[in-house]
């Protein structure tokens, strides 16, 4: 049985840049309104709506002069800056394809993405330059196609001196691309694709938590479709016009990732909502900025929200300006949602969501007029349809609350995995009528089989632990562990001991806690069924390893667990 969204929204057939700005040359409404503000330098480092469009066009002209051609790829290897969104759109305005890489990548990891994407140019933060050059050379890219992309205001760099003595062979500063082209850029009209539905605008690489990262081809039309979906639901909130006048948000998530890129590089700028940008995430600095700038809207990932609920430092700061908090990237417990809500403005909305790179970004969300206190991730966004399938991939589920793999279809579905037909074929099912379905790999269920059904995410198929034939979801055990006041963070993985898979927990203690591993295991025994007991033991660690988007790096923990206890007998709590 197919579940359809109860909303249908028209999707403009144009480029992403046209959707955000409208005209390439006409005066913009609120042209001088700040759209990006450096959170650490809010008085001196500001980009207005007019600056945003003009700088994007200047970067475009510079890239074209440097040799960028239609559908060439440009890789950005940098942390957050207020100029990052202009670089992103500058690539698109030239007809190019943007791809972003984690600033934490090693040369080997970066070289893989450079080779796989076939990037023609690289933009790297100054601190990342040595790794960028090493990776570029390894991938066959000349160092003179590497640009130093810093956070200093380009308007304060009137003339850049070449980084290298041999200008023709060394890396260059990104401001060289825009030198002397401001007048020409004002009247220049950007690239507009003939078919936005088939023209790729970015390669957003999958997280790689279960394998080598794959490039996900997102088209202009898919990108716009996801933005329209999000905005259409946001606009249903009572008093939205008045709220939008005071709305401001804080970006601490990495802009190279689809989650932050979509919200802070497209949705909020289109809504003319000021975005305060942090160069990198720091928990206490984030709290300070929320308090000082009276942030109203927060887009976060579960580890951040767990810290807000559990870390005593959060109690030092005034969070009462927050009216709307959205979480994504991993399941979030109801207790965490409740605790965070207590810090916010009365009546604030704290909701978790669910998304994936292969569906551009967000999938379900919340109608602001629907009150619900459950741990659901919401209902399908406009224009989407879903099925729940048994894990054999053949049998459709038709009963509420029965768990299965979620399949999705709609205009946000990726074009394909970049140059990887096999992976695309394994992931995208095509019906006889040509309808394409994304096999998400996520296990979930719905509360009812009708439009408006609420979705609940259990876990990733590949992360489920099978204890004596019974499936155990790590996310469920992690949420239970976080109910313990002595636990500030947790991850659960399966480990095979004497031929049997059992759950093992990695736990970060709350500050000052003296709880023992034995006590944690016994506490869990009073909370969950026997097959969910932590027979693989409990191990205390300083921090749960996660990627920049907040997903637990389970492969690393599984490997660690196998090294630590793989040859031992299953634990009883008294032996932990």
Automatic annotation (TrEMBL):
InterPro entries xrefs: AMP-bd_C (IPR025110), AMP-bd_C_sf (IPR045851), AMP-binding_CS (IPR020845), AMP-dep_synth/lig_dom (IPR000873), ANL_N_sf (IPR042099)
Recorded GO MF terms: CoA-ligase activity
Pfam families: AMP-binding, AMP-binding_C
Residue ranges of every copy of the AMP-binding enzyme C-terminal domain listed in the record: 476-551
Domain AMP-dependent synthetase/ligase: 33-418
Gene3D superfamilies in the cross-refs: 3.30.300.30, N-terminal domain of ligase-like
Membership in a protein family: Belongs to the ATP-dependent AMP-binding enzyme family.
The protein's name in its UniProt record: AMP-binding enzyme
Organism for this UniProt entry: Colletotrichum noveboracense
């Amino acid at each position: 049985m197919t579940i359809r969204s109860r909303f249908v929204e028209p999707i403009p057939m144009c480029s992403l840049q046209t959707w955000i700005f409208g005209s390439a040359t006409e005066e913009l409404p609120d042209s001088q309104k700040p759209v990006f503000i450096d959170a650490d330098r809010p008085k001196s480092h500001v980009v207005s709506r007019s600056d945003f469009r003009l700088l994007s066009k200047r970067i475009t002209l510079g890239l074209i002069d440097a040799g960028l051609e239609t559908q060439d790829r440009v890789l950005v290897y940098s942390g957050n800056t207020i100029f990052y969104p202009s670089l992103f759109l500058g690539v698109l305005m030239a007809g190019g394809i943007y791809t972003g890489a984690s600033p934490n990548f090693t040369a080997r990891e970066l070289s893989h993405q450079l080779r796989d994407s076939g990037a023609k140019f690289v933009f790297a933060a100054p601190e990342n330059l040595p790794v960028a050059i090493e990776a570029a050379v390894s991938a066959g890219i000349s160092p003179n196609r590497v640009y130093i992309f810093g956070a200093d205001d380009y308007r304060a760099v009137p003339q850049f001196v070449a980084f290298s003595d041999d200008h023709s062979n060394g890396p260059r500063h990104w401001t060289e691309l825009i030198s002397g082209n401001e007048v020409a850029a004002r009247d220049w009209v950007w690239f507009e694709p003939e078919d936005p539905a088939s023209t790729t605008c970015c390669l957003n690489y999958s997280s790689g938590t279960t394998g080598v990262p794959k490039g996900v081809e997102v088209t202009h039309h898919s990108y716009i479709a996801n933005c329209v979906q999000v905005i259409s639901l946001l606009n249903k909130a009572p008093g939205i016009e008045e709220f939008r006048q005071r709305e401001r948000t804080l970006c601490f998530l990495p802009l190279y990732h689809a989650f932050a890129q979509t919200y802070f590089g497209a949705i909020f700028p289109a809504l003319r909502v000021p975005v305060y940008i942090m160069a990198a995430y720091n928990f206490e600095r984030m709290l300070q900025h929320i308090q000082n700038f009276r942030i109203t809207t927060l887009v976060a990932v579960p580890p951040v929200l767990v810290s807000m609920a559990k870390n005593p430092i959060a109690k030092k700061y005034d969070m009462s300006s927050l009216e709307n908090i959205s979480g994504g990237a991993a399941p979030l417990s109801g207790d965490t949602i409740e605790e965070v809500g207590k810090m916010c403005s009365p009546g604030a909305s704290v909701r978790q969501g669910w998304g994936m790179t292969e569906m551009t970004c967000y999938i379900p969300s919340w109608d602001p007029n629907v009150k619900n206190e459950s741990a659901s991730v919401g209902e399908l966004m406009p224009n989407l349809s879903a099925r729940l399938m048994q894990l054999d991939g053949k049998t459709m589920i038709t009963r509420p609350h029965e768990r299965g793999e979620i399949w999705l279809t709609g205009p946000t579905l990726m074009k394909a995995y970049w140059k990887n037909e096999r992976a695309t074929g394994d992931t995208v099912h095509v019906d006889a009528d040509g309808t394409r379905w994304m096999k998400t790999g996520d296990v979930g269920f719905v509360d009812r089989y009708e439009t408006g059904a609420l979705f609940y995410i259990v876990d990733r198929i590949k992360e489920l632990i099978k204890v004596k034939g019974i499936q155990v979801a790590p996310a469920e055990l992690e949420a239970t562990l976080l109910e313990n006041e002595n636990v500030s963070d947790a991850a659960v993985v399966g480990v095979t001991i004497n031929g049997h898979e059992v759950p093992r927990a990695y736990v970060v203690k709350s500050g000052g806690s003296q709880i023992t591993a034995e006590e944690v295991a016994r506490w869990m025994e009073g909370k969950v069924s026997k097959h969910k007991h932590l027979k693989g033991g409990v191990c205390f660690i300083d921090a749960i390893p996660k990627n920049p988007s907040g997903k637990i790096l389970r492969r690393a923990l599984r490997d660690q667990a196998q090294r630590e206890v793989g040859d031992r007998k299953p634990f009883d709590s008294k032996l932990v």
